[in-house]
Amino acid sequence: MNIRNTVFTAAAAALFCTGLARAAVGADEVATLGTTLTPLGGEKAGNADGSIPAWSGKPLQVSGASVGDVPKAVFPGEKPLFSVSAANMEKYRDKLSEGTVALMQRYPSSFRIDVYPTHRTAVAPQYVYDNTKKNAASCQAVDGGKTLKGCYGGIPFPIPKSGVEVIWNHLLRLEPESVDLGARNVVGTADGKRTLATRIDESFQHLYYYRDGSADTWNGEYWIQRFNTTDPPFKRGESLVIHDSIDPATPRQAWQYLVGQRRVRRAPTVAYDTPDFVASGANYFDEVMGFMGHPDRYSWKLVGKREMYVPYNANQAVTVSQDEAFSANHLNPANVRWELHRVWEVEATVAPGKRHAVPKRRFYFDEDSWVMLLMDGYDAEGKLWRTSQVTPFYVPKLPGLLIKPVIIFNLEAKTFSAVQSLNGEYYKIVDRKPESYFTGEAVAAEADR
């Protein structure tokens, strides 16, 4: 497998010339970044009643115990303002997603959300702010949003005009250049039991956020990943390498090492609605990290902005032990912090000529960080079928708000899949690795089984 070193493939370049592109926003709108808008595009002001405060832009000063680079608590001692459950959810229904309501109805005696004071902790390094402002003036969605040009190193569309721009903001959200972590993929069954699908050591590299890069030199790959399976024993040594790109001709390249075959093979189906074998098939590959992969199978409608209760500043949820993290059928509510935030609502429906197992989805993205916080998925009859929760946590070393894991609920089967759970594991921002590390050849050379 060769690392691509051209800026884009010829096919992508042709699309840039012939595809439909939306012009970047005008100078007057760009000037609002850092004034009435935050540097990443959120509204700087709080809401009318003060329950959402103004954005201060000050990185949190966090002390105390941590797991790797993740503090265990960012607001220690703070108590919930109130809790919402099946017993009182009608009072708060206008600020709840349909999936959150469904979980309260499904598990009325155990599922609740504890609502804390809102803290707008989404910040970023200055170079990301600078690049985001450049992107606002130059970044364009090309070929109906299937690819991009003129973007690099920041949020591509801090002042979005369409749903597809918002999903690109999530895909190209703030990330460290390089991360090492341990993670567990945990499956919850209808009878309240949990099983370990896989335990992995994982490395991520985010080429789009290399400090020494630029829109002119970036090759279009924005995320590369490699993991090694350590548990259960029969899967030990299995590995997967993924490269994601904005190139619509080859948006994802993947290679899998199978212990039984002792060889690396291409894995073209590791995408979209293929069941995620890393999680024993309990979720689809594009449900990882809220939404992962190319957006071309959907048409994306920007519904608008609203205030909602969402998981936020959930450091405790991702740093407690596995046993503390989970209740029988969901995360342990005592450890999950929910706050009131403004979110962008985006509706995705299967695009003409395309197919997907989940024909309609409704996403909720944080206005300050652009991370996906909640997702509701509907079947062909329009019935709510799936719902996802993401638990964003604050990392002062970056600084910024990052995400892992995602909890994906199958409401019909009464199961859940916790993808890349950090509980009992580690998360560290590290120096960049050679990109040759993220290749099938490197995996095969280092295999011990």
From TrEMBL:
Annotated InterPro entries: DUF1329 (IPR010752)
Range of residues in the leader sequence: 1-23
Keyword Chaperone listed? The answer is: no
Return the Pfam families for the record. Answer: DUF1329
CDD domains to which the protein is assigned, alphabetical: LolA_like (cd16329)
- Gene3D superfamilies assigned: Lipoprotein localisation LolA/LolB/LppX
Keyword field:
Signal
Protein's recorded name: DUF1329 domain-containing protein
- What species does this protein belong to? uncultured bacterium UPO41
